[in-house]
Amino acid sequence: MRRSFRFVLRPTVKQAVALGAMLEDHRQLYNAALEERREAYRRRRIGIRYGEQSAQLKQIRAADPDGQGRWSFTSQQQTLRRLNRAFEAFFRRIRAGQTPGYPRFKGRGRFDTVTFVEGDGARWDSQLHHPNAAFVKLHGVGHLRVHQHRPVTGRVKTVEVKREGRRWYVILSCDDVPARPLPSTGRQIGVDMGVTHFATLTEPLPGVSDGQGHIPNPRYLKTVKEELAAAQRAYARTQRGSKRRKKAARKIGQIHRKAARQRADHAHKTALALVRNADFLAVEDLNIKNMTKSPAPRPDPGQAGSYLPNGSAAKAGLNKSILDAGWGVFLSILSYKAESAGRQLISVDPRNTSRTCPSPGCGHVSGENRQSQADFTCVRCGYAANADVVGASNTLRVGLALRDAHAA
User: Fold this and answer.
1) What does the radius of gyration of the chain's CA atoms come to, in whole angstroms?
2) Is the whole-model pTM more than 0.85?
3) How far apart are CA 20 and CA 17, in angstroms?
4) Phi and psi at residue 207, to the nearest 5°
5) Quick one: DSSP state of residue 313?
6) CA-to-CA distance for 391 and 201, rounded, in angstroms?
7) Strand residues in 57-193 grouped as ranges (E)
8) Do 377 and 371 form a contact (C-beta atoms < 8 A)?
């Protein structure tokens, strides 16, 4: 398996300055490569590929030894590959008939990651470890202290340095990470994601959910709503380009990043509890991008240039709640934790899972079955239960059917 390990970096003041200079030079390299591609197509209608730009690095480094020449050659290649992937995604979206989104130039503060190849520009050396810290060596920066809170397993392939606000992180991407199967529990669980409750399980788990199987939704962004609003008002009162404006922007970023860290921590702990307590997990295959789209405008046929109400305000509130819940983060974490623990996880089509009667011999599907957010009453057989529990039960039923079909 391939896994990533993320740790906090503890650079000295001098090293933090060097890391900032490294990001800035890689940002300039990215923008220069993008400009070259754009101008080549605009003037001569030709495309420039990664290989051609990578071949120019030797000359660029020789011409600027105190700038581009300071950093790892392979890290600069990774930056050019990053631009190449952006163009590949651009052309892929064109072929698929989607909104293309031409690659953009990276402004200051918009380029926060540099990738190294292990052993060539970066080195994670286990011999440098001591009981309370580890070190990573970066070309042009030196040995950086790492707050290693868990062991690294597998073979380190790439080392990524990332800046988030004023914090620095190192992300190790490792191959051949061994699985750690957990003992069998004999339990099978269906999971229904929600907004009122973060998730609902087919059966309650002590210490994870309440007696009905509901996992509370922490709503981390909502808890800092007033603090965030005050920070945004303070930002609005500042002048463009002033030091106060930069300070106010950092405050807004700190609030969002803290909520994101809390959200990820909750997702990790919930996912770990599920894989420890179940051998089989069935979850909804949610298309969160489509679920959080803004509603299309409704032109008024009786008056040109006017529009009818389309519920955009209510949809905006729902979209914010969905994104605050962090379903995508949780499902991604649950997937790799299940694989590492030797558990089986299947994603099922979420359509009609909360509208289908789970009663044996019924299976009636109707929007009328779900009378409210919490209440489910089958209009055919009269079966009544919590709507989220019904959704989790149907998710498990469909997941087991898919598992048996694949086994056959």
Assistant:
1) 26
2) yes
3) 5
4) 80, -5
5) H
6) 9
7) 113-118, 121-124, 134-138, 142-147, 155-164, 167-175, 188-193
8) yes
Residue with tokens 């052993």: 119
Indicate the DSSP class of residue 120: B
Within 8 A by CB and 6+ apart from 178, the residues are 1, 153, 154
Q: Within 10 A of 314 (CB to CB), how many other CB atoms are there?
A: 11
b/e for 249-274, b at 16 or more Cβ within 10 A? bebeebbeeebeebbbebbeebbebb
Return the DSSP state at 71.
Answer: S
The amino acid sitting at 294 is S
3-state helix, strand, coil in the chain (%, to 5): 45, 20, 35
Instruction: Quote the longest CA-to-CA distance of the chain.
Output: 80
Residue 115: pLDDT over 70: yes
Helix (H, G, I), strand (E, B) or coil at 355: coil
CA dist., res. 12 & res. 71, Å (int): 19
pLDDT reported for residue 297: 87
**Rounded Cα distance, 135 and 133, in Å:** 7
Give yes or no for residue 152 having a pLDDT over 70.
Answer: yes
The residue to which tokens 């990578």 are assigned: 54
pLDDT band at 392 (very low <50, low <70, confident <90, very high): very high
Structure confidence by residue, pLDDT tens digits, 294-310? 888 888 888 888 888 88
Phi/psi of residue 90, each to 5°? -60, -50
Region 259-265 average pLDDT: 95
pLDDT tens for 41-93 read 999 889 899 999 999 999 999 999 999 999 999 999 999 999 999 999 999 99
What DSSP character marks residue 128? G
Nearest to 54 by CA among 38, 27, 75: 75
Distance CA 406, CA 66 (A): 59
Beta-carbon contacts of 44 under 8 Å, excluding residues fewer than 6 positions away, are none
Domain boundaries, the chain: 3-175, 188-216+277-299+310-407
- Span between the terminal Cα atoms of the chain, in Å: 26
